[in-house]
Amino acid sequence: MSDVFRFSKTVTDGDGTMRDLLGGKGAGLAEMCRMGVPVPPGFTIGTRSCISYINNNHQLEDGLRAEIEKNLTWLEQELGKKLGGGDAAPLLLSVRSGARVSMPGMMDTILNLGLNRDTVEQLANATGNPRFAYDSYRRFIQMYSNVVLDLSHSDFENMLEDQREAEGVKIDSDISLDGLKQLIATYKKFIKEEHGQPFPEDPRDQLWGAINAVFDSWNNDRAILYRKINNIADNWGTAVNVQSMVFGNMGESSGTGVCFSRNPSTGEPGPYGEYLRNAQGEDVVAGIRTPNKIDNPDDPESMAAHWPEVYQQLLDTLVVLEKHFKDMQDTEFTVEDGKLFLLQTRNGKRTSKASLRIAIDLYNEGLIDRIEAIQKIVPDSLSQLLASEFDQEAKQQLLKDGRLLGRGLNAGPGAATGVIALSAEKAVSMSEEGLPVILVREETSPEDIAGMHASTGILTQRGGMTSHAAVVARGMGKPCVVGCTVMTVHYESSTIQMGGRRLKEGEFISIDGTTGEVLEGKIPTTSSPLLRELETGQFEAGSQGEQFAKLMSWIDDIAVMKVRTNADTPADARVARLLGAGGIGLCRTEHMFFGEDRIQNVRKMILAHDEESRIEALHALQPHQEQDFYELFREMDGLPVTIRLLDPPLHEFLPHEASLIESLATNMGLTPSAVRARVRDLEESNPMLGHRGCRLGISHPTIYRMQVSAIVGAVNRARAEGVDAQPEVMVPLIGTKGELDHVKRSIEPIIRESGLEIPIGTMIEIPRAALTADEIAESAEFFSFGTNDLTQCGMGLSRDDSGSFLPLYIDAGIYKRDPFKSIDQKGIGRLVKMASEAGREIKPDIKLGVCGEHGGDPDSIRFFHQVGLDYVSCSPYRVPIAKLAAAQAGIEERA
Amino acid sequence: MSDVFRFSKTVTDGDGTMRDLLGGKGAGLAEMCRMGVPVPPGFTIGTRSCISYINNNHQLEDGLRAEIEKNLTWLEQELGKKLGGGDAAPLLLSVRSGARVSMPGMMDTILNLGLNRDTVEQLANATGNPRFAYDSYRRFIQMYSNVVLDLSHSDFENMLEDQREAEGVKIDSDISLDGLKQLIATYKKFIKEEHGQPFPEDPRDQLWGAINAVFDSWNNDRAILYRKINNIADNWGTAVNVQSMVFGNMGESSGTGVCFSRNPSTGEPGPYGEYLRNAQGEDVVAGIRTPNKIDNPDDPESMAAHWPEVYQQLLDTLVVLEKHFKDMQDTEFTVEDGKLFLLQTRNGKRTSKASLRIAIDLYNEGLIDRIEAIQKIVPDSLSQLLASEFDQEAKQQLLKDGRLLGRGLNAGPGAATGVIALSAEKAVSMSEEGLPVILVREETSPEDIAGMHASTGILTQRGGMTSHAAVVARGMGKPCVVGCTVMTVHYESSTIQMGGRRLKEGEFISIDGTTGEVLEGKIPTTSSPLLRELETGQFEAGSQGEQFAKLMSWIDDIAVMKVRTNADTPADARVARLLGAGGIGLCRTEHMFFGEDRIQNVRKMILAHDEESRIEALHALQPHQEQDFYELFREMDGLPVTIRLLDPPLHEFLPHEASLIESLATNMGLTPSAVRARVRDLEESNPMLGHRGCRLGISHPTIYRMQVSAIVGAVNRARAEGVDAQPEVMVPLIGTKGELDHVKRSIEPIIRESGLEIPIGTMIEIPRAALTADEIAESAEFFSFGTNDLTQCGMGLSRDDSGSFLPLYIDAGIYKRDPFKSIDQKGIGRLVKMASEAGREIKPDIKLGVCGEHGGDPDSIRFFHQVGLDYVSCSPYRVPIAKLAAAQAGIEERA
Lengths: 895, 895
Hints:
elongated; homodimer; 33 strands; eight-stranded mixed sheet; D-amino Acid Aminotransferase, Chain A, domain 1; Glucose Oxidase, domain 1; eight-stranded parallel barrel; Acyl-CoA Binding Protein
């Protein structure tokens, strides 16, 4: 069978399903031709020929050249033109690569092929625009020399610059016709010297050279790297699309433009685009002339007003394309002498807002069903709908004024503006004065929680996407920029240094947690309109709230992995439930320990010299914990609430600054040196691998017993009030079955005595636990994968310290993505899979969930779905994203 | 088949192989009877009956009672005695437990069963010693009440004390005959009140009660816990041994004693033991009379002199036993009226020195072959032969004077005495003054290496068996005590506090790295005589050196896992080779960075502002590294030398104390604050999981390139001198194949250009590397498992911080052993196994080794042998231990 596929209005060999053979572009062109959409005709040389070319010592395989010649003849007849011109009009071609999946900018393209000293004159005459013809010729020579002859682009740019200087002009388009002719002569001379051969005048030679070059480009360095990073097989190959050129600059009845089938910014239906008459695509890009709108009732120069017939033809085409591709289309078109040609159509990129609206509208219009609507939306885009936003004009002004200080990692989406506070205490006090505050720290620790609460945004010098600051800020839904390494925090002088400037505590900065930008000065912000609407519980018809609610209800109708939330406070729980959470998958009890009314007793408990005073301090804490749990149960009425017993090392609860140690000592009736000694005793070289989690529960059994008693008390209180409390107790940092059994022996009697039935499960966050999950499953009623710690231990990678080399690793392609953002499926994912299988083998109905940060990452969610987990749990603001991703994973699997 | 097994000189049903059925003691008694060794006859009720008893609601199974009665009648006939006496002499019995494996002290024993108000009189008459008879009766009642009737031991002790007071005597044996009779009456009254039943007078009732009690004792709490900890199956059960009593206190022709068949302290051939005439075993224990030697030509009271016939009989028996059991025996015997009875024989415990000598002697005597000789020696015992020793008298004197300050972990065997130095600098300067020094630190870090070298011993407050101090000290063969938490180091006042005392820097202390003891004051020490002999290379016939060399040569004849050493210096390498190392499995290049002549350039390299000055500093380092490697190659001529590229985080090379930072700044021409900032930048929250290993090699490629260039240079220099250098380059902390490939791309060209062939392999120390070992094997020529880090990451357990809960975990049976000492086979071992299999699948001849601390642990070595690794690598002084353990594992497998 031939590997050359024609496409034209009369004959089309391929179709849109044949991406593997034709590449994406070739399949798209074929499909448009089949639909009757006007497309400049041409043919596609299939991907198979590329691989055969490479394996055949860079020679076209036998018969392919004849095949191409045959199709070229067909194309010439189709158009009544001839490659090389002569007695007929000259046929000009574009030669483009096109792989199975898009590899933007990786491979090569050649335009205007077929020009030579004869055809350029023919073109000049036909267009009546010799300057255009010669400029096209100049560009062709330059492009061809670079791509096919492998000559340096910069040499040609230098010759071009010389020519500009010689004529005393600044831009290329001001070079005279004679200048262009002179330049072309210079080019050709240079080529002959450098390449040893004259520039090919024969268009057929040009064509063979171009085809070989496109095939060769499959194996250029950047394409190989790109494939490696994106997991694209080396043996897929690229197709070559040989297509007739059309020109939008043949006069006033010609033109070129781009047009979306709907507004990509708002999602509003109707065409949205621009065009330029008597122009080519590159003129639009160059920005020398201002294009006109396609459709603007007030503008007589709009396409609708000026070319009503072509306009109508475009509209009809867009409708056909949308119906066919079932999505908003982004098209490029050219009008040659009153005739419309589509050069490209693809699903259009759009804002989050537009994405939601378009999906719902397409459903309402009957173009797609619910399943398709769910698939249309990129899960991560929903986070933007929930984020606060900068006033864009004010932000642009600051950027123009050079007030961008630097960039960090975009750890918590949204915009925040406020005065710099360099300590949690300062953040609280400034906030009490009514100021909006940005908490700026080298890095945050649990001591800073109150300060983070009091702030509108958080900025740190160190830390990655799952550092303490990032995790907590996302949980609170606060804008956050972390790992801003260009910033230095000087606590002594209460200043920060960044972007060559020094700012004092109390001065205004603005952070964009969606982009990672940090700016000097104040920018007005608005909170997410969607969130405000959801909070009212009332949606106007057609509002974003209604669209969102509709989407969520569709998702709920699909039986897929459930989504819970990580929430420690009633406020978090409420937001999460509003956003569709099906329960709490992780309540970190330690966050409750930092409240003003608790921390003193927590510290007493830690500093206690004997069991008695330790128990006394714990008794004082118990009512607070009980109240916390009770409130969570109330918010989550009827839904499961997984409570993790105390996890962090005790030293996190003790102060480290001298003044705080002294005041603590005074409070406790101890000497500062005694407190200091205890703080020091508790310090660890590697706290992440230290005395925490169940190790703490085993060495201090009274802590876990107090917590379980508080849970029991809260359940009883809630149920007495008719609240359906559904607690689950989760033991952290289990590495062996023996640990879990030990903890259970200590806490189970409390539950048994209460007469309640509360399941006890465990985190699987230590590699050893995953490796011995069969044993552990005997003692656990559920597993919750703590994939943050599992990643840290499994990859030997501290999330707080990895900032110093992670970016380098990702640049070098060693890691494809930050493994704390998206789970490393091959390594850490294998542990999750092994443990799930082993757990289910022992206990087929064991409940399996994830409560690491990966629970909010769509790629990771797809993986967890494939492994067969029951639920993921994520920050409240990630809940809709996770639900959408889970639904898509479910749909994908069914297909 | 009957579950009751007789043993006597005439009829013996069981034998020594039937441990599972008869328990260890029962099988041993049966075997001795079969050999014709005189043993008091009896019978064993098998372990099966125990399990049936437990499952049968604590009832003896049908027919068992009749079976026991039948055997009891046989026993009565055998001895011409009767249980309950009457017309015949009374038969007295011991009833003892005996499980398949020894569970010392876990289960119960009853002696003198059969005594009642009648038989005690018969016994009194027969022995002519009524006091002895009544005291036996008293003891029997007390023991039986406690074990069978479950009455409190202390109540009886109180009554006994009352009786002593009433008579005004201090020790039990001074209580009068009447007093004993009175006490027995008091006991019986008490028993009736407390137990509700009178003390059983019928010896048959006594017997049934005792048998049930022994069976029940299988399930007492301490036995259950012991089984759990020691992996003994619950369904093995215990046997019951019912044996006739013999008495060594029937007059001057009776006696009792213990005797080893060879000297357990030196290994010298010939009987070694003590006996007492007219006495029972407990009299020997009570220490009221001084026993006489068995064999002492100068002592007319020695057994040889006094009872030449019985002595000769004992000697003959010992020879028979040794021949039979092929090992030195530890026996208990009783002589009743001139007649010798063996009550027990077992392989005798012995010192390390004796262990080696006995194994060699038994071989020389033709009792065992080489394989058996190798199996006789406990590998760990060899470490004592290589350790320095305290003068025992001087040490005992200090202990008596109350100069023991406390105990820590025995991290490096041997004895050291010296003046306290609280910093590495001080250690160096004091040592230069000619003083022996003990370096005392909270914990050590690589900065302390020079100080450790200058010291004779190391003592730290914190850290576990694989902390920095422990690992380095063992590598240097220095005595070391770590984790001495009872000690506080006060750097400010240059003192330490411990055991209620405060010692100043410069005062003498002594540490015993074999026991963990720390003493105040000076104790003379001697270095290991074996090591001194090995260093001469000349062995006298029969010397320990000759014995050692013989053992090692036998081991080398067995083809098993090879043993390499972890060595960073020529001195380490020399010792290791002397002790039998087959190469270097781990050379930590960073240890070379701390030398006086290097550290300045290392710091320059770290503080460099640009690539140029970094390269300059590295150039200055290169000759030193080259010299280091060259010297190692020379020591290891012909053997492989695995060089690990730089591993630790850079901040380990920078000073942290203010004064040192200042002097560094001056040296570098920088401001102290600039140096401080860099130190701070490099600090990490969890350095173990931070920017180190290959991550460093990737972010600072010039470091690895310098190291590889130095290796190439050293190889060339060595080979030019005829030295057969066999380098292997090892890349640390690999987690993904991509990392290894990245490093290889950087260093391979250097090797290629040199024309040398140097294999490049990787550490497998990150769980992810183990999980994806198939991929990594494609790029690695060998794997070396870094089981320290693999344990840390895989168990989420920092070895430096685990000291705060590890002891608790081991006490509670959660961990069976410190996982840093002996590999966790189920979890971490599984990773090693998975990775080995995956690696071999891809590359069948890939070389697999271990270079963690586990490489020197016999249990771990057995495991590594089972996994099929090619070699282990350990500290120089562990090499013989590892070789012996590897040989034993190999022998075990063949069997």
